[in-house]
Amino acid sequence: MGKLHYIIVLIVVLAIATLTYQLSTSVDETADLTDPSLRHDPDYFISEFKATMYDQSGVARYRLAAKHLEHFPDTDTIEVQDPRVEYIDPTRQVWLATSDYGIGYENTEILKLSGNVKIVSNNPDPDKNLVLETDKLTITFAKKQASTDTRVKIIGKNSTITSKGMDVNLDTGILTLKSQARGRYVPK
Questions:
Q1: Are 154 and 163 in contact (CB under 8 A)?
Q2: What residues have CB less than 8 Å from 126, skipping those under 6 apart?
Q3: How far apart are CA 78 and CA 51, in angstroms?
Q4: Which candidate, 72, 80, 25, places its Cα nearest to that of 47?
Q5: Do 20 and 107 have their domain in common?
């Protein structure tokens, strides 16, 4: 019975090995059919970075810093964690935007921020400084504009305004409220 037992074990092991080989080759064949360009995998990532973007005349226009960035070649987008965007206008004011998350499109010409979005204007006249708080914000650098369709809270020196949606011209500082605006002004 000892030899028969070994022959049965050998046959079972050979059967398992044959089935395993057939299964692995069928899995490999299906994996080869997948086009790698269709996968949404990052091709590079950067941690703790700062980048400055310049206009055509060589003047710094905005700075982007974040804790982590990943670039996805299939969509040519970047995803950033804890981004900090500083929009610079040397003759007027500086806008600083922060959030939990951001996605950059079109070579980072459009940046969509989400989660605890805060945008602060640092005007040379401190009485004109504003703090804007919202859940989502789209910054379009070519148009020099920031906008949202979600609820926004705008805090000034003596006022607080809430609105559903807004547009901000980052060069002129003109703020346009879209709908359901309510405000409170307390003179000091």
A1: yes
A2: 157
A3: 13
A4: 80
A5: no
DSSP classification of residue 26: H
Its domain, for residue 151, covers 40-185
d(CA 66, CA 5) in angstroms, rounded, equals 65
Q: Whose structure tokens read 């965007």?
A: 85
The widest CA-to-CA distance across the chain, in whole angstroms, is 103
User: Three-state SS for 125?
Assistant: coil
Residue with tokens 């981004």: 83
**How many domains does the chain divide into?**
2
pLDDT tens digit at each of 188 positions of the chain = 577 777 887 888 888 888 888 887 776 555 444 565 567 788 888 999 999 988 888 888 889 999 999 998 888 899 999 999 998 876 667 889 999 999 998 877 899 999 999 999 887 777 778 899 999 999 998 888 999 999 999 998 888 999 999 999 888 888 899 999 898 877 76
Of 29, 44, 114, the C-alpha closest to 76 is 44
